[in-house]
Amino acid sequence: MERKQKRQKYQLKISSITENLEIIREFVRNLAIRAGFNDEISDQIVLAVDEACTNVIKHAHHYDARRLIELSVFIDKEKMKIIITDKGKGFDIKSLPRPDIKKYVHESKSGGLGIHLMRSLMDEVSFSFQPLKKNQVELVKYFRKSA
Question: Is-above-0.85 flag for pTM?
Answer without folding.
Answer: no
